[in-house]
Specification:
about 260 residues; Alpha/beta knot; 2 domains; 6-stranded parallel beta sheet; 4-stranded mixed beta sheet; 9 helices
Length: about 260
């Protein structure tokens, strides 16, 4: 029997999120032996109820996993997510996708994955040559989304977008110079939002592949939004409209 693929996640938020969402996937939790505050006690209690092994270890051991561990490191098994785009598309009648072109900062990617998961996105797509992979920093910021939302890195982004169009999935990009705003434009049922990195934006070929572009209305002095904030705006506007059309489970929230 092969060993399950594993990943290390750092920090209280990521550990709490994984324990609550999928405790059976948590293989082991390491906690700084010098901490005994309320957050640690809460974590210990949840781990005990879930029958997850928890070990007290020196802080120096945790430091070996990265600087942002906050006193907690968890080893988790990876869920079997859709490894290929075809798997995602065949499972969804009206796919809802996010495409990131040039997002190389782990914190931005983690935040985008978290937003995408919350909005009900079926998969996040990125080019292999201009993107960051899933790292412990990405997982920490994503708070569980990196292990539950498919993140597919493709060799040729333009070709992948063309293949999506052949499947009747509309490619919609964001551009501050677009004629129509997000709230004026009609959004197709099956679509892939394309966002570029803050500052550089999408590459020319990616932009030219889009079926149409929209702008996010800006009313203040700033000229642009962080890519994860922009993703939140367009994805939740899309989710709102899909909920209005009676999508199964759409609009379902956590209390």
């Amino acid at each position: 029997m092969t060993e399950p693929r594993q990943r290390v996640i750092l920090g209280f938020h990521a550990a709490f999120a994984r324990l609550r969402a999928d405790p059976s996937s948590v293989l082991e939790i390491l906690v700084d032996e010098g901490r005994n505050d309320a957050r640690v006690k809460d974590l210990v209690g949840i781990a005990e109820r879930a029958k997850v092994r928890l070990m007290r270890v020196p802080k120096e051991r945790l430091d070996g996993f990265g600087e942002r561990h906050q006193g907690v490191v968890a080893r988790v098994s990876l869920k079997k997510l859709a490894a290929e785009l075809d798997d995602v598309l065949e499972a969804k009648e009206k796919p809802f996708l996010l495409v990131l072109d040039g997002v190389t900062d782990p914190h931005n990617l983690g935040a985008c994955l978290r937003v995408a998961n919350a909005a009900g996105v079926d998969a996040v797509i990125a080019p292999k040559d201009r993107a960051v992979g899933i790292t412990p920093a990405v997982s920490k910021v994503a708070s569980g989304a990196a292990e539950s939302t498919p993140y597919l890195m493709v060799t040729n982004l333009a070709r992948t977008l063309a293949e999506l169009k052949e499947r009747n999935i509309w490619i919609v990009g964001t551009d501050e110079r677009a004629e129509k705003s997000l709230y004026e434009a009609e959004l197709p049922d099956a679509l892939a939002w394309v966002l570029g990195a803050e500052g550089e934006g999408m590459r020319r070929l990616t932009r030219e592949t889009c079926d149409f572009l929209v702008r996010i209305p800006m009313h203040g002095e700033v000229e642009s939004l962080n890519v994860s904030v922009a993703a939140g705006v367009v994805l939740f506007e899309t989710a709102r409209r899909r909920a209005g059309k009676g999508r199964p489970g759409a609009g379902k929230g956590k209390k």
